[in-house]
Amino acid sequence: MTDAAFIIVAIDGGAASGKSSSSRTLSDRFHLLHVDTGSFYRAITAELLRIGVPAADLAGVQTAVKHLALGTRVAGRSAQMEIGGRVVPDAEIRTKQVNDNVSHFAAIPEVRNALLAYQRGQADVARTRGFRGVVMEGRDIGSVIFPNADFRFFLHADPEERARRRASEGGQDSIRERDRLDSSRKTAPLACPDGAVSIDSTHLTLAEVVELIAAPIAARLGPL
Ligand code: CDP
Ligand code: CDP
Question: What is the mean pLDDT of residues 135-149?
Answer without folding.
Answer: 98
